[in-house]
Design brief:
Layout: E1 2-12, E2 21-29, E3 32-37, H1 44-51, H2 54-57, E4 62-69, E5 72-73, H3 79-85, E6 86-89, H4 104-114, H5 119-132, H6 148-161, E7 166-170, H7 178-193, E8 197-201, H8 205-211, E9 214-219, E10 222-228, H9 229-233, H10 237-240, H11 247-257, H12 269-279
Parallel strand pairs: 3-8, 3-9, 6-7, 7-8
Antiparallel strand pairs: 1-2, 1-4, 4-5, 9-10
Helix pairs in contact: 4-5, 4-6
This protein binds adenosine-5'-triphosphate and magnesium ion.
Magnesium ion binds at residues 44-45, 91, 170.
Family: Belongs to the ABC transporter superfamily.
Pfam families: ABC_tran
GO molecular function, one term: ATPase-coupled transmembrane transporter activity
Amino acid sequence: MSVIELKDISYRYPLEKEDTIKNVSCKFEAGKVYGLIGENGSGKTTICNIIRGFIPSFYKGELRGEVLLKDKKLEEYDYEDLASIIGYSFQNPFTQISGVKETVYEEIAYGLENLGVPREEIIKRVEELLDLFKLRELAQKNPYELSGGQKQRVALAAVVALDPEIIIMDEPTSQLDPKSTADIFEIIDILKKQKKVVILVEHKIDLVAQYCDSIIFMHDGECKLSGTAREVLTNPKVLEMGGQLPQVTLYFLERIKRGEKFDMIPLNVKEAYSILKGEE
Ligand SMILES: Nc1ncnc2c1ncn2[C@@H]1O[C@H](COP(=O)(O)OP(=O)(O)OP(=O)(O)O)[C@@H](O)[C@H]1O
Ligand SMILES: [Mg+2]
């Protein structure tokens, strides 16, 4: 059963003449990671804001179609219910920091305090998250004095702290080095095992191929391709529409173009290795 479903969604921002999102339909299930990909301006963040109800309530504009959250229309939920079900980490981590807390520790605890969670429980939860997000050394620092990448990790920890069923991450690794990026993907894997719906907007396509179960490929406001990571990320149409494919996949597509045949197109080095080994 899907947790969220978009049914033929179209959306026009206020004062715009054309729809930014055009007839998008897709479903999201628990325990799966969804990669929302596509070039700049293709509508990924707009889709995120539709899923979390910020469109149309905050951005206004004209939304057509239907968003179902657990079989109930999204507009039937009040804002507080939505905020407890859907966690959202912003594309820009600078906008996420609350600005009212003086330490990383308090920043992560902030949302839990607002929900009235008992003190002992808050401490337990924050301690876990400091370890999970490798933030222990930064715990007493002011969130505003952190680097972009450190802010991004704090922002994400604050979202995960609230234990929402659905976690939307809009480019969570944009400011992170490769090591911290790998750490975030490990956390994404943990969230998946906890049966969350994870919606990930991400440009690092090799990691998307490795960690995402399903892919939604956006182009000019339309969902042009969707399906399993293998279905979408081995499809050369993605390239024609300005998207990216994993490096190994590109290499195999090139060989196929030159007339070679393979039973499977690999998405990662490990798969490529076993295909080539089988050839010997
Ligand atoms: N508040 C707004 N009012 C009008 N148009 C907007 C607004 N926000 C975004 N847009 C337009 O909607 C389109 C989709 O933008 P969106 O931010 O959803 O793209 P994106 O795929 O997230 O891009 P990026 O990869 O750069 O983050 C763009 O053409 C953008 O200019
Ligand atoms: Mg965006």
